[in-house]
Amino acid sequence: MSFDHSGLRAQFPILNAGPGPLHYLDNGASAQTPQAVLDAVLAYETTARANAHRGVHRLAEAATDAYEGARAEVARFLNTPVDEIVFAGGCTAAINLVAHSFGATLKPGDRVLVSELEHHSNIVPWQMLRDRAGIELDALPVTEDGRIDLGALPRLLTERTKLVALAHVSNVTGAALDVPEVAAAARAVGARVLLDGAQRAPHGPLDLPALGVDFYVFSGHKAYGPNGIGVLWARAELLEAMPPFLGGGSMIGRVTLARTTWAPPPRRFEAGTPPIGPAVGLGAACHWMASLDWSAVASHEMSLVQRLLDGLGEVPGARIFGPAGLQRRYPVVSFLLDGVHPHDVAQTLDGFGVAVRAGHHCAQPLMERFDLDGTTRASLAPYNDASDIDALLKGVAHAVRTLR
Ligand code: PMP
C-alpha cells in the first residue's frame, strides 16, 4: 500500500492522451477510469461475454462468475455481506428503488426527512412517493457554511419519521455529514437512515455496518468505474421485507399466469439482464480503490484543497460556498466570483485546459435558499496535483481581469 502520485496518474489513459495538459477537476460529476478497470471490462467482453444466471454453457458460467465476482468486490469495499449488495443503474436508480420498495411499506402520514442541500435525485423520488402514497416530506435546513443543520433534528425528526435520507457528502459544498449523530437520533425514534454516498464512495473503502445506517447508495461512474452501474446496500432483513421494484426475468421464484413469487435479495431487485460489463468494471474499480493508501491520498487531496482555498482567498471578490476549512469535508470546493457568472468562469477555465462544473449542481433548493444562480465547482480525485490547482487559479485570475 503506497501512494506514488505520478505512477497513479499514469494509470489514467485519458489524462495522458494529450496534446495539451488536462486539468480534470470535474470528478464530482464523473471521475476518470484507470487502465485496470478498462482491462477488466475488455477481458469480460472478449472472454466471458454471455448472459448471467441463465445458461449452463461455459461462457454463461463465466459471465455469471464475473458478475457475482464483481458483487463480492463491492461487498469487500463496503465491508458488507455479499447478498446485501444490489446492483442498480446508478445512484439515482438506487434511490428510486428504495422509494418504491421501502416506500411501499410506508403508510399515509408517515414522514421522510431529507435536507435542503440534497441532490435532486434524493428529493424528487420522495416527492413522487409523497404524491403516490400520501407520506409527508420534511427538510433539514442548511447552515451558512453549507452543512446540514443537525440542530433542527429535534424539531423535524418525529415518531412519524420512518426514513432520514441525506447526502453523506454534499456535491455542492463538500461538507461531510456527522453520521453517528444522525444515526443515533434516527434510532431513538425508530427511523431508518439512507445515505447518498455518491460523493463519498470515490474517496476510499467504507465500513457500512459500523456506520449505523440502513441504506447506502452510490454511482460507479463517480468512483472510477463505468457508466450505467451503481449500488444499493441495505441490511439483509430490510431487503427481505421489501417488495420488488421492477418485475421481469431473474427476480422471480416461480411464475404462473395467476401469480408470481419473488427471488430472495439481491436478485429480487435485479429484474432483467443485468449490466454485466459495467458491474465487472465497478468491481475492478472497487478493487483498485482498495489498493490505495487512503490516508496518504486524503492528505494529498486535502493539501490541494488548502492550496485552492488559499489561492481563492487572494482573489478580490472571490467567495467560498461551503466550509472555510478542512474539517469534516471532502475535496469538493464551490466558489463564486462577484460580478462574474459561474458559467463564464467555467468557460474561461476551459480555455486554460481546466475542467470544472458550473451551475446549480442538481441542487436547486440549495441555490434558492442562498439566492444563487449557481456556483463554480472544483472536485478532486487522487490523480490531481498542484499543477491542476495552479492552472485553475491562473484561469480565475484571467476571468477576474477580463470578465468583470
Ligand atoms: N447524489 C449526489 C450527491 C450526486 O453528486 C449525484 C451526481 N451528481 C447523484 C446523487 C446522482 O448520481 P447519478 O446521476 O450517477 O445517478
What is the rounded Rg? 22 Å
Order of helices and strands: HEHHEHEHEHEHEHEEHEEHHEEHEEHEH
- Quaternary structure state of the chains depicted: single chain
Helix content: 25-40%
Strand order of the largest sheet: 2-8-7-6-5-3-4
Estimate what percentage of residues fall within beta strands.
15-25%
CATH superfamily of the largest domain: Type I PLP-dependent aspartate aminotransferase-like (Major domain)
Low-pLDDT segments: none
- Tally the helices: what do you get? 14
The CATH topology label of the largest domain is Aspartate Aminotransferase, domain 2
- Helix/strand/pairing class, anyone? alpha/beta
Q: Identify the overall geometry.
A: globular
Instruction: Indicate how many domains the architecture comprises.
Output: 2
Bound molecules: 4'-deoxy-4'-aminopyridoxal-5'-phosphate
The CATH architecture term of the largest domain is: 3-Layer(aba) Sandwich
Q: What is the straight-line distance between the termini?
A: 47 Å
Biggest sheet descriptor: 7 strands, mixed
